[in-house]
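User: Show me a protein chain along with its predicted structure.
Assistant: Here is one chain, sequence first, then structure tokens.
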Amino acid sequence: MKWPLPLLLWLACAMAWAGQAPGPPTGLQEAVVFSQYGDLSSSTELARRLVSPLNAWRLQRRAAATGASIREQPVDLSQERFALYVPAHMPAEGYGLLVFVPPWDEAKIPAAWMPVLDRLGVILVTAARSGNEADLIDRREPLALLAAHNVTGEYRVDPQRIYVGGFSGGARVALRLALGYPDLFHGALLDAGSDAIGVQIPPPPRELFERFQDDTRVVYLTGEEDRFHQGTDRQSRQALKSWCVTDIDVLDMPHTGHELADAAAFGRALASLDARVPRDAGQLADCRAHVDHALNAALDQVQAQFGGGKIDEARRQLDGIDTHFGGLAAPRSVELAARLEQP
């Protein structure tokens, strides 16, 4: 018996479809349990990227002196829950991804944001028990990193469109993560919360900081009537510019106080993350040279204080350098600290 060609083609397609495994789920997913760990969320990497060199060195010394062990992964994923929204339609290059750090403890995704995520093809993931009362380096930061690791492992995500954001205190965490993990996050959405690099946040090691300067876009989104956070945003932006970071966008929400972004403002901010501005290579090189000159002068002064026997003053100045220059000052700052501790 001869089968008509159209029927044969239909049967072939049906057999192929039957053999395909169903894709990962889309839409809103709540109480999600992840299981995969990555190197970026390890205690070693968290300390290297997010803790100033002298504080990390002192923690290591204290642990060695007391015999304390540090758990390599600070979070037990089997005990954690996440909320996830995945648009039904995936862009040709893969989904975008926004890891959102909340100031509250619930893992919830604003319903008004979902049409925006659909329109822009962006997955949003957020963790439970990651509010302002949770520990930074033991919970909030590794939870965000693990969320990114698991989502990118399950869905096809465009690596150039992986962003971190947050609201209020969560936005401050988002900036820390963007600064310490520029090889993962290419943009930060700061909704009514920010800090100043070199004051509240130490710069990471040089290779990471230069990548942050090169590749990361920072978008500030704050209510027009939120006077306090408008002020801290200005300080944060001034600090970024002094640290040679120029790809910055500022979006206001008219007639709004300290409130979570509505759908329209969220959509503008999310679209802005995709609109990166090229750096001026010459201007960036000059700015980096200026920072290095100031750093070397400060370390030379500590060296002089140490050579002159002014140990307490040398320690005080070195602590200030560690806060301000962070990873840019290492390893010289750590070497000086070790010499200052010698009897």
